[in-house]
Amino acid sequence: MRKIFVKTNNPYEIMVQKGIFKSCSEIIADFFSSRNTVIVTDETVYRIYGKTLKNKLLREGFKLNVFILKDGEQSKNLDNLSLLYEFLSKSQITRNDFIIALGGGVVGDLAGFAAASFLRGISFIQIPTTLVAQVDSSIGGKTAINIKSGKNLVGAFNQPSLVICDPDLLSTLSSKTFCDGMGEVIKYAASFSESLFTKLSKNNIYDILEEVIFDCIIYKKNIVENDERDFGNRMKLNFGHTVGHAIEKYNNYKNITHGQAVSIGMVYIMQQGEKLGITRKNETEKLKKLLKKFNLPTTVDISYEDIFYNSLSDKKRRGNNITIVTVSEIGKSHLLTLNLDEYKNFLSC
Length: 349
Ligand code: NAD
Ligand code: GLY
Known about the structure:
Bound molecules: nicotinamide-adenine-dinucleotide, glycine
Number of domains: 2
Order of helices and strands: EEHEHEHEHEHEEEHHHHHHHEEEH
Shape: globular
Mean pLDDT: 96
CATH superfamily of the largest domain: Dehydroquinate synthase-like - alpha domain
Helix content: 40-55%
Structural class: alpha/beta
Strand content: 15-25%
Low-confidence stretches: none
CATH class of the largest domain: Mainly Alpha
Number of helices: 13
Strand order of the largest sheet: 1-2-9-6-5-3-4
Largest sheet: 7 strands, mixed
CATH architecture of the largest domain: Up-down Bundle
């Protein structure tokens, strides 16, 4: 088993191994002295993995209840958060008990925020079941829900107590959801590692999946350890996201997935970078080729004005300035702070 220790203010371990889900209940029983927990999951994940986990934990002597969300981004909302608080209360969750987030980023973000705020903070474990969650959302402690004004606008930094990552769980993902996750994987490669980019270009992903997940976790761990609260280099993890989030918002979070929007966002930023001479010529073509290998879109019909206006609630905006992530060449990312006029010009040049 590969173990990664994340040295944040509340340090924790990430366990990565194919098949580790089978021993999840024993690992959890060893880790916590409490025997009272709530599993938070969604309908699809409950059907495929939740019942198994529940039965295994019951056999270990746990008293537990399961809170099941409807699938999808729309579930990451205040109403469900409120229902979850009541559910935790009725399940008699006390401060030494814990939550298990079993699912993708939607489940992890909502459960993690509930854990950050219920009783002023209880522990939670992440068992990520999507590629996005395994390489990104289950690590680093960003938890949040969406409000009408935008995505992830209410949340907290709250590191999990443990992450149990089993790449075998990804075998049941639809190819669209898997490719969505590849958008985040390619983001790591384009921003931090030319060698990961080459590995992804030259290999069949299924032959190298566990190794790739491990690589991405290491990139994220290194960034998060040095900037847990997202004031500096951690913003580089958002390459493609400012434009991507604007595209998602413009589309009311429908018809386009997060990974697809990020894919288009990365291409948009690199194309503009090439025009302005801050990105090496032809780098965007390399990126597009890799994104297309995973059926990710590289363009969408949206004006630069719509991207601009839908970027204004971005969390990387500070007053009149916004920080975007540029890439000078594959594997080398930089932060660029622009005032809003400069940002508009950047988008439109
Ligand atoms: P998701 O959680 O909505 O899952 C996508 C779909 O896959 C769902 O329908 C789910 O039921 C299904 N699914 C999950 N695991 C499955 C499995 N093993 N087999 C079959 N189906 C499965 O989407 P996601 O892409 O995992 O997460 C997106 C969310 O993550 C967004 O809300 C985004 O804002 C958030 N996010 C957060 C961070 C962070 O740092 N906290 C980072 C990236 C993304
Ligand atoms: N997903 C971006 C971050 O964790 O900072």
